[in-house]
Amino acid sequence: MQKQIEKYRKKGMKLTPQRLAILEYLDGNTAHPTAEDIYRAVKKKHPTLSFATVYNTLQALVNMGEVMELTIDPERKHFDPDTTPHHHVICTRCGRIGDVFVDYSRRLELPEEVTRSFTVTSNHIDFYGVCKNCERKRRTK
Amino acid sequence: MQKQIEKYRKKGMKLTPQRLAILEYLDGNTAHPTAEDIYRAVKKKHPTLSFATVYNTLQALVNMGEVMELTIDPERKHFDPDTTPHHHVICTRCGRIGDVFVDYSRRLELPEEVTRSFTVTSNHIDFYGVCKNCERKRRTK
DNA sequence: TTCAAAAGTTGGAATCGTTCTAAACAGTCG
DNA sequence: CGACTGTTTAGAACGATTCCAACTTTTGAA
Ligand SMILES: [Mn+2]
Ligand SMILES: [Mn+2]
Ligand SMILES: [Zn+2]
Ligand SMILES: [Zn+2]
User: Which residue of chain B comes nearest to A131, CA vs CA?
Assistant: First the structure.
């Protein structure tokens, strides 16, 4: 976390208490929170926090390449502080999002009809299924 | 197209002129249109068409499993009348969406830490790149 | 054919996530 | 102490999508 702070300071980002709280909340967070998740959590320590600040900070972080925006949920954006390339598993019952740290690129050859019309440089896989939590619930029902 | 119409009639869907026009527009359409694309195109023949009808019809089709909703574009939903499982290529410059009809499932083994917490049943890959059109533009600039 | 129930259409209002705005604030430097 | 710069805030604005209530069409039974 200290490293993080240094990094942001070096990049010329002013570190306000609100931003620090947001950074702290995101640091190591693997839950893929939405702006509202962040807002609600950070508001506890900073009751005057506004949504604008959350969105502003997120945008700054995304521009700096420190946070990724996930287009996984049609209803709202999710944010991922882990910017190493990776994929996701989504529980179709509860929406829980998990990480998949495997690079499948070598195995994803594209047919010629595609490479003819696109120069592909990256990929992202969404796996869909049911999480153990939801599975357990279903059985006990 | 006639087959289509029969299919919908059998499923107990009322076939109004607006719906027929929407179905016709979607039939064989590989452009992954948005609700607005559909609205604009169909409005030419049915000037009184409302967005509500477009959304209602799309929802009915999605519920029937005849159309897929794509969560690829953070700004708006795209719709795909091709419901056979397949993947997509997205041009990061112009947003153009292409199809990739390859089943990679066999090659996408998941690490045990994932299978321990999720029962995965399907996957969808987004490939990102630049389409030839945009590439040409860039070079001539 | 006729007719009424059920389902669909419409324009506009409402909703919801996200972005924008203008005014108040805070830290920095002279 | 100002002036400067970037930040925070509340609330307005926005754009995609959903909802609503009144009206119209489709459909199938009589
Ligand atoms: Mn992740
Ligand atoms: Mn497609
Ligand atoms: Zn779940
Ligand atoms: Zn392009």
Answer: B118
